[in-house]
Amino acid sequence: KRMVTVDVIGAGPRAVAGLLEHVGVKAEICPLEVVEKRLVDLKEYDVAFVSGMTVDLEAAAKALRLWRKSCGMSPIVAGGPMFYEYRKLIAFGYDIVVMGEAEPVIPSLIKCLKQNDITCLEKVKGIAYRGQQKTVSVTGLAPHATIKQLSIQHSAHVENYPLYWASRVYVEIVRGCSNFRRPSLKLADGRRCIHCPICFNPRTPLSARLRCPVGIPAGCGYCSVPATHGPARSRSREIIVREIRELVKRGVKRIVLSAPDVLDYQRDMLVYPEPLTDPCNPPANVDALERLLDDIFNIDEVSKGETYVMVENIKACLVDEEVAKLLGEYFRGTPVHLGVETGDPQHYRMLGRPGNLADVKRAVRLLSRYGMQVYVYFIYGLPGENLKTAKKTVELMEQLYRLGAEKVTAYRFTPLPGTAFENIEIKLTRASMMIKEKAQELNARAKKKLLGRKVFGIVAGFHKARRRLVVYPLPHGPVILTRGKKQLVGWLVEVRVTDIVSERMLEGTVVRKIKPIASHKAVEVALQVY
Ligand code: SF4
Predict the structure, then answer these.
(1) 194 lines ligand 1 (CB under 6 A)
(2) How far apart are CA 223 and CA 45, in angstroms?
(3) What distance in angstroms lies between residue 180's CA and the mean position of ligand 1's atoms?
(4) What is the ipTM of this complex?
(5) Which residues make Cβ contacts (< 8 Å) with residue 28, sequence separation at least 6?
(6) Distant-in-sequence, close-in-space partners of 5: CB < 8 Å, separation ≥ 6
(7) Among 179, 192, 198, 419, which is best to mutate for testing ligand 1, by the most ligand atoms less than 8 A from CB?
(8) Exposed / middle / buried, residue 280 (Cβ in 10 Å: 0-12, 13-18, 19+)
(9) Residues 6 or more apart from 285 whose CB is under 8 A from it?
(10) What's the pLDDT score for residue 4?
(11) Is 80 exceeded by the pLDDT of residue 370?
């Protein structure tokens, strides 16, 4: 992968490694780049677990080839969101695919692998595997992890990631999504919402929202989180704080509290034992969130500002004055992400989005007022998009920018497996281009505001094609390229932004060297890999 895109360490592989350790198996995590460079000896391992997104199938095939070359027919297991492509993974040569969340599956799977008996696999719920006659056997989808299983500690062994000292490390605080509304647009197979009272009647009991009579997957039509991970469940505060302490001790400088919605944190406890399937009611559990943030910001390095902690996604309908004030108190000057997707109120509702566009405007206004950098997200090419919806979207983008949004991003619609829109054909039209171009225009305007600004950053490596050092700004922002010697890699520096290189890159000049933050050995490995 390129230097500009490797600054993320996801929560998934650390969760699986933690689970393995929990059942007494020694586990290490390695990104594919490290395996490719032969910085680890695969022969030392008995089993490989490969985690990936649906776009990572090619990389998964590469990982499989490397494993087979070194370890012959030793078992290799695939998992993560790419599990929806289990037939392809097994056709590639994977032995087993974990079909959903790993927590309920790993303990019995490990028992089976230890017995080295293929017939044992049929009793492991939540896997697909290659049977004796090269057939694909499926034991069903994995059940969703319980709150107790979610609070098994994730591994903090991040040192095999060459850039762990500069990367954003995701620490999971909530699994699953509370949006159990559904899209009312016609699906690829002709199914359509019959407007029963389940999704939109606020009096529908929370557990009744789990099933749709016509089988439409829950959540926004383009998102697979509710179908894959179920309703939002929070991890325990003690475990989250312990995990962050461990990561900080190992030299991690940037931590993101990961959740489909950070404001769902412990909101599930307000409705327990019912599932949290309403995205907007009850309101955020501000007391629980404050206790968590208080504990995190009491960690020495975090309170001194040596390690940055950030949030990411939140739902607009849960943002009120109290929430914005709390977030501003802890995260002033750091980004917060709001998914908006369309600016047409009817289209918004038809996509299955939570809340409404008035919530979005209020959230942007309040969060900006309390010092947050608000990033808003749209999607072009969505089902139901037309010139009318695009025009309203462009208007809303401009409005949100004026209300204080610092970044407006438009992604191209991708029909993901497991979602309501999974087999819908992508059609990019003039309407789609209007949205895409508006986002580019607003971002160019926003980037101009950065010119001349001084920011702290970590020199993370060297961009070979551009012959420049790569600086990851703190706490987060577009990558900055700068002239300088390779000896500066691993240093904390202050940079002045001097130019805009592209949508994702800026140019800058180092104005101050502050201190080295990575060891010589860690820097050497990073330079070798990237
Ligand atoms: S999507 Fe399904 S559950 Fe929701 S209102 Fe329509 S028919 Fe009812």
Answers:
(1) yes
(2) 35
(3) 10
(4) 0.94
(5) 17, 40, 45, 157, 160
(6) none
(7) 198
(8) middle
(9) 265, 266, 267, 269, 270
(10) 57
(11) yes
Collapsing DSSP to helix, strand or coil, 100 comes out as: coil
**C-alpha 24, offset from chain centre:** 28
**Is residue 3 pLDDT above 80, yes or no?**
no
Element (H, E) at 155: none
Domains and CATH numbers, the chain: 13-145 (3.40.50.280), 165-448 (3.80.30.20), 454-529 (2.40.50.140)
Q: What is the CA radius of gyration of the chain?
A: 23
Alpha helices in 317-429 (DSSP H): 321-331, 345-350, 357-369, 387-403
Which band of pLDDT confidence, cut at 50, 70 and 90, is reported for residue 200? confident
Q: Is 444 in the pocket of ligand 1 (CB under 6 A)?
A: no
Spatial contact of 525 and 162, defined as CB atoms under 8 Å apart: yes
Give the model's pLDDT for residue 198: 93
Measured between alpha carbons, how far is 282 from 284 in angstroms, rounded to an integer?
7
Strands 491-500 and 454-463: antiparallel
